[in-house]
Amino acid sequence: MAHTNDEVARLLAELATLTELDEGSPNTFRVRAYQNAERAVRSLDRDVADLSANELAQVKGIGKSIAARIREYVDTGTIVKLEELRAAHPASQVELMKVPGLGPKTVQLLADELGIVDLDGLAAGLDDGSVAALPGLGERTVDNLRQGIEKLGLSSKDVRVPIADALPPAERIVAVLRELDAVEEAAYAGSLRRFRETIGDVDVLVAADDHEAVTSAFLEHSEVERVLGSGDTKTSVVTRDGLQVDLRIVPPESFGAALVYFTGSKAHNIRLRQRAMERGWTLNEYALAHQEDGEVVARTTEEEVYAALDLPWIAPERREDDGEIEQALEGATPDLPEVADLRGDLHDHTDLSGDGRDALEDLVAAAVDRGLEYLAITDHAEDLTINGVSREDMQAQRRELRALEEQRGDIRLLHGAELNIGVDGSLDYDAGFLATFDWLVASVHSHFSRDVEEQTARVVTAIRHPSVTAIGHLTGRMLGTRPGIELDVEQVLDAAADTGTAIEINASLRRLDAPVEVIREGARRGVTFVISTDAHAVDELDRARFGVAQARRAGLDRAAIANTWPVDRFLAWRDGIRDRA
Length: 581
Ligand code: DGT
Ligand code: CA
Ligand code: CA
Ligand code: ZN
Hints:
Mean pLDDT: 93
Number of domains: 5
Bound molecules: 2'-deoxyguanosine-5'-triphosphate, calcium ion, zinc ion
Distance between the termini: 68 Å
Strand order of the largest sheet: 11-12-13-14-15-16-17
């Protein structure tokens, strides 16, 4: 689509919104006419600038008066009607129209009765009761508007989005861009590539020469809801879910330099730039180059850029300037894990758990497909009221599992359970029965708001239980919705180091638990970790990569991750935990 068409489509959308506001109704003939024309222009395969008013009016969806307005824009660079509407309705009021649940009539009412013309005014009016007192409104509407404002808030860069809400749409957008003929390479960068728990906005990088083709494909992506700004090399949009995505188009030969630059963090980049300056070079999104004549030193791959600065390539998850550069210079960079290093998965649910979805044999087959050499089945133990499994059902599952292991012969199966750590540290079943399991994960699933002494005591009690082999999702946090339990982390980690009980790195994007700081502290204290998917369905085995990224962000050495070990070493270590506790 030609550049003018893009611009015209955007102006038509704005005309539709402003007219809606002006007429106090979303469904007038004029509003619909603008909306139809916007769609028509977006799908037009010719440049509107090349068409006369008459030719435009013959395009399906474009009427005579709108055809005239399009010509007006092409000829004069402006549309008088649009300027009038903009003058009559401040941008802040247009912003109000984006609050879910707020239509043009109410926006007018708010302005006329209460003088509310922006979001801050609306928030104040919701709080002091004046909005609720307006005719035709009331408590229900007020509640809806409050929720609407919260949702809207997510579209601003100041509100950080949990990574679980940012990563999937970012990957979908990158996948679509990567398929374009014009695109040589596409990747997300920024805080998302660094694997931060929350994301301000998503930064997408594309290597391409044909900027228009990439920009229009991006703008037409089904997830894009509105455009914040669009130029030759940079376009910013907000998705339907309120996520801001910045697209940057860079020359293919500069992709490495751009990736370094836009991955950040800012602090890490500053350190790199200092090293460039010491060498008489500059470093920006296009290249590492000589300060004097601009001669390029490195730009195509990240490795080349780092190598020129006498550094090994530094993993994106580590780029925070909190010691990674010093480590690299001393040759003390941790040996970070990769997905392919994982030989086992040690926290997996079948449909025997109330919230598990797939059958044992399907889960096992999927684990073998993914190259796993061992797998622990850990359905919920009986104390979890809605999901728990009785002793008899556990025993039946164990027989089924042993038979399956024998029949397949290609994977080692461990029969386990996910126990519930009671408020006093007690566990499900009885000690005798617990001792018959191959692998036991103990997790907090209740009583999240006790004080730090109680929480620490209950977790340490579970760690010291002779049959418990790992602590699942240590803090119980749900990123963006629930904080973790309060723990004296040092006491907990010391107990784990003492007994050998593993601390899980739960790979669910909503959990990423233990947190990065806890993993770092644990590594210093000699704790052993496991990276577990906590899969409740076959496809969730694939989230192992998120657990790996969490471990990498913590700078955890792969040697400290028990499920990277061959099965014999792993089982010998497991026996050791039981002897020590
Ligand atoms: P966010 O979006 O707040 O979660 O965090 P980032 O790190 O994604 O930050 P963002 O989106 O503002 O910028 C993306 C990257 O671009 C950032 O990590 C480093 C780079 N960058 C942006 N502005 C600057 C700058 O002024 N100087 C330098 N050196 N790098 C910058
Ligand atoms: Ca960002
Ligand atoms: Ca950004
Ligand atoms: Zn679980």
